[in-house]
Amino acid sequence: PGSDTNAPIDKDDPRFNKPLNRFSAHVFCGVEGYYVVRNMTLDGNTVGSSHSVEKESLVGNLSFGFGFTLHRFKITLAHVIESKEYKTQSGSTEYGSIILSYIY
């Protein structure tokens, strides 16, 4: 979550059009859910006894953002909200990303 993907390039891609048609914008949103059977970072060592916390079995992410393309440059801004991964966690985890790409 929070990373950029580039759509396939074709003749209508603004990065290859005439100078007056080289701008585009898009918004995106994604939802992901997982059922966690084992998470070694939370459950501890698989061989012997070790420190662990009581994990949440159902976890998920919500990501959203927008991107702009100008000529051969693209900038994408995203925000991700992740649900709690263990019972005593104080709240969800949030982070953002800014990605600048150039196609050549």
Characterization of this structure:
The two termini are 25 Å apart. 7% of the residues are buried. It is elongated and about 65 Å long. The chain is built from one helix and four strands, in the order βαβββ. β2 (58-70) and β3 (73-82) form a beta hairpin. It is mainly beta.
Percent helix, as a range, is under 10%
What is the tally of helical segments? 1
What order do the helices and strands follow?
EHEEE
Strand tally is: 4
Mean pLDDT across residues: 81
Question: Class by helix and strand content?
Answer: mainly beta
Uncertain segments are none
Shape: elongated
For the record, give the distance between the C-alpha atoms at the N and C termini, rounded to a whole number.
Answer: 25 Å
Task: Please give the order of strands in the largest beta sheet.
Answer: 1-2-3-4
Q: Approximately how much beta-strand content do the residues carry?
A: 35-45%
Q: What is the gyration radius calculated from CA atoms? A: 20 Å
Oligomeric grouping of the chains: single chain
Q: Outline the biggest β-sheet.
A: 4 strands, antiparallel
